[in-house]
Amino acid sequence: MAERSAGYALVEMLATLIIVAMTSAMMVEGLGHARRVWDHVDAANTMGDATAGAQLTLRERLERIFPATRYDKIPSYADFDGVADKMMFLSSPRDVGAPSALRRYQLAVASNGDLVLSSVSDVAADPTRPTESLVLLHNVQGLDIAYFGVAPPDNRPSWRFAWEQRPGPPQLIRIRLQFAPQDPRVWPELLVKPFATVDSMCVLMVTTKTCRGRAVVRPQT
């Protein structure tokens, strides 16, 4: 009887060890799956934060476009130049660079796929050479910018793919981005209305053909 009891005890112990091992394996697998889910959620949140940050940066700069009047050509026009895949404009500096002079910004997609907002001080010795290049997003396949306003040849309010040498900035600016088909990122359509569309501070100096108190604007190349 003692030997039989010892045999039963050994079988029960082995069965218990097997059950514990199976339970531990399931727990480890469950923890691993949960970690993969959380990693995926964290990655999605990170991508969403990057997209939201890029949109916030662009919105802050575009809302504060400064419609400086230029007189180096006839008729005069606003210092704003935009086409479907590139945009150049004057705006206030970012908070980290304030207070300082206005900056001349350019938004475009670089050859490596980076969405870059480059800028240079409007009073820099060489206004054609950017001193700051802020990478907003990586791996961008396409940039689509449209401009809403009244312009020739129809002189009717509508969306346009270019806004060059107009009396003022567009009433609305729309920015769309394209990512690779397998890229999970989403870019909500960004629609921005500039606060100012008229250069009310410009007093023309006939001798210099500039606004009073402003430096001569060098042509962009």
Task: Describe the fold and architecture.
The protein has 221 residues and is of the alpha+beta class. It is 28% helix and 29% strand. It has one helix spanning 2-63; strands at residues 69-70, 77-78, 80-83, 86-91, 103-109, 115-121, 132-137, 142-151, 156-160, 163-164, 172-178, 190-192, 204-205, 210-211. The strands form four sheets. The protein has a six-stranded antiparallel β-sheet with strand order 7-6-5-4-3-10, covered by helices on one side. A four-stranded antiparallel β-sheet has the order 9-8-11-12, with helices on one face. The radius of gyration is 30 Å and the shape is elongated. Residues 37-45 have low confidence and may be disordered.
Summarize this, please?
The protein has 221 residues and is α+β, with helices and mostly antiparallel strands.
> Helical proportion?
25-40%
pLDDT < 50 runs, ≥5 residues: 37-45
First-residue to last-residue Cα separation: 102 Å
Q: On the 0-100 scale, what is the average pLDDT? A: 81
What is the N-to-C order of secondary-structure elements (H for helix, E for strand)?
A: HEEEEEEEEEEEEEE
Q: For this entry, what is the oligomeric state of its chains?
A: single chain
Number of DSSP-assigned strands: 14
Q: Pairing-aware structural class of the strands and helices?
A: alpha+beta
Give me the Rg, rounded.
Answer: 30 Å
**Per DSSP, what share of the residues sits in E-state strands of 2 or more residues?**
25-35%
Outline: elongated
